[in-house]
Specification:
The protein is built from two helices and two strands; from the N terminus they run αββα. It is mainly α and about 70 residues long. The chain has a domain of about 30 residues. β1 and β2 form a beta hairpin. The chain is rod-shaped, with a radius of gyration of 31 Å.
């Protein structure tokens, strides 16, 4: 008899929790991460960084050739 009561209480509790789980998904909208592409990093624009990278690459090549 006690097992029957405990199992029925468990079933009622599970059924009562179902609407809460459904409402959580409705209440809390999913937040999409917003990606903002920065136009400058450290005062340099993206084009400046590309030029700096090319200059560094050329400098390393020249350094390697001079050795």
């Amino acid at each position: 008899m006690q097992k029957f009561i405990s199992s029925s209480v468990r079933i009622v509790t599970n059924i009562a929790e179902i609407p809460n789980e459904l409402l959580k998904s409705i209440r809390a909208p999913k937040i999409k991460p917003q990606i903002h592409e920065a136009k400058s990093y450290g005062g340099f624009t993206n084009d400046d960084w590309q030029k700096i990278g090319n200059d560094m690459k050329r400098g390393l090549i020249k350094f390697g050739q001079s050795r």
